[in-house]
Amino acid sequence: MSQIVTRFAPSPTGYLHIGGARTALFSWLLARHSGGRFLLRIEDTDLERSTPEATQAILDSMRWLDLHSDGEIVYQQARAARHNEVIDQLVALGQAYWCDCAKERVEAMREKARAEGRKPKYDGSCRERGLGPGEGRVVRMKTPLDGSVAYKDMVKGPIAVACEELDDMILRRSDGSPTYNLAVVVDDHDMGVTHVLRGDDHVNNTPRQILIYRALGWDVPEFGHVPMILGPDKKKLSKRHGALSVMEYEKMGYLPEAVLNYLARLGWSHGDQEIFSRGELVACFSTENLGNSPAVFDTQKLEWLNAHYIKESDPARLAVLLRDFLGRDLGPEALADTPQILLEAVVPLLQPRAKTLVEMAEMARFFVVDAAFIAFDEKAVRQHLTPENRTLVEEYADALEHLEGGFDEAAMEPMTEAFLSARDLKFKAVAQPLRVALTGRTVSPGLFETMRVLGREQTLKRLRRVTEL
Length: 469
Ligand code: GLU
What we know:
The chain has about 475 residues and is mainly α. The chain has 4 domains: about 1-70 and about 225-310, Rossmann fold (3-Layer(aba) Sandwich), CATH 3.40.50.620; about 80-185, Glutamyl-tRNA Synthetase, Domain 3 (Glutamyl-tRNA Synthetase, domain 3, Alpha-Beta Complex); about 315-370; about 375-469, Arc Repressor Mutant, subunit A (Orthogonal Bundle). The chain contains 18 helices and 12 strands. A 3-stranded parallel beta sheet has the order 1-2-3. Helix 1 links the parallel strand 1 (about 5-10) and strand 2 (about 35-40). It is elongated and about 105 Å long. The mean pLDDT is about 95. Glutamic acid (GLU) binds near residues 11 and 202.
């Protein structure tokens, strides 16, 4: 078989939502799996609803997900002349015709058909009139009067529609603009697309598009229609189920590989495997395992995957992301004096704990702000930093100041044991007071590792401050 070429063809009328991203991913995987090409086409022909910001949001999302086009990005609007050329060709071939029926007249025909219990459609009255171009005229497809359009959908299996069911659709509107079905066929053909995977909201367009391919004598690509994504209440996924835009997931601190892994499993499976590296997805992907029933979005599973990828990621990479997320919270200047090496030491402490980068930044805050800027949980202070415990914390600081060896767990552990046994105390007695003094809260990574990463100076400064709280 010749090389597989797939494409993703979003309309830039809003952000890229996760359903669109999933379609893009499946198309990308289908191409990558066979060493083919994946192309991106921005369908910006709806001039009223398309915006440059939406185009940018799509490009940003695709970049974030690392789903790159293997060719120049095609902008559909720029190809209007080519679309019209093909429309003229269809007219010349006798496969399409000019029609001057007013909208109201066509609506009346439809109404009448409905009333008579027939399928509402244009009655073809201009088919044989041999009209040419003219003010207010449209070009319609001369849909065959009999026969059918049958194809094997890559997801839904065999589909057949009788031509009778299909209208003489408009290919060119009265304002001269080509319609969606025509433009998509011409673009897919010119881009050499061999496999079209898209949302099943387009399934009714496909037989119409196949007719255009046939009329032009062009090779018809394979089509596959992916079912929609549902919310946990089994209704179409919408804003009220949470975030929809890909970039909102970035903002919420998800890693792109977690989102990709999650989306891949939303409607596609490979045995019962849940975790897939990018390479594994490419190796395992096949349209045969695309499900034909709607998948239900499950935020907890996405969180679980994200936690997994956070644990697995290279700390140096996460430290770069952590700086970015801390900067979003504290302002980037607040981190000007924070060395990267500190963040790289913080990350491994938080990798087992944080489910998102937002959580990680929140947990990392006390490491990067100076002792004077720690946000104290007042209840924790009241409960754990009693006058008695403050004295204990001070004494611990004294002992820590004379710590021999490195400022690390190996030295801190025996020192702490000696400190406790001299006072006949259990670790519990100092753990929370020290933790609150150091971090402002009752939950943090292990005490010794926290002190190691904070370093001698910050640790002592924080412990000594307890008397002032
Ligand atoms: N531009 C269409 C959309 O955003 C998709 C067209 C297609 O994939 O054929 O829904």
